[in-house]
Amino acid sequence: MIRHIVLTxxxxxxxxxxxxxxxxxxxxLQSQIxxxxxxxxxxxxxxxxxxxxxxxxxxxxxxxxxxRDAYLEHPEHKALGGQLxxxxxxxxxxxxxxxxxxxxxx
Length: 106
Description:
By secondary structure, the chain is of the alpha+beta class. It has helices at 16-28, 65-73, 75-86, and strands at residues 2-8, 36-43, 56-62, 95-101.
């Protein structure tokens, strides 16, 4: 399984309802992309305060790399990704993406 983790640093003027709507649209891609499952997103609740401005994020679980790759190439993902980048401080600089293999042997 692949866990796709995205951390975001939204511009100050972007309000939570707009973020929630975008995250909901990303979650809805589950109905279009086989092997995509387990979307979770929202605001950081960490008591450590180490977000470095990356206050929102989401993660998506994929059955395998092929499902993740299908998501990355999906036209609706590309459109929503463009919207996301437009809402971030510094564009792509306001984004961190990290893919983690879950269940791999140590």
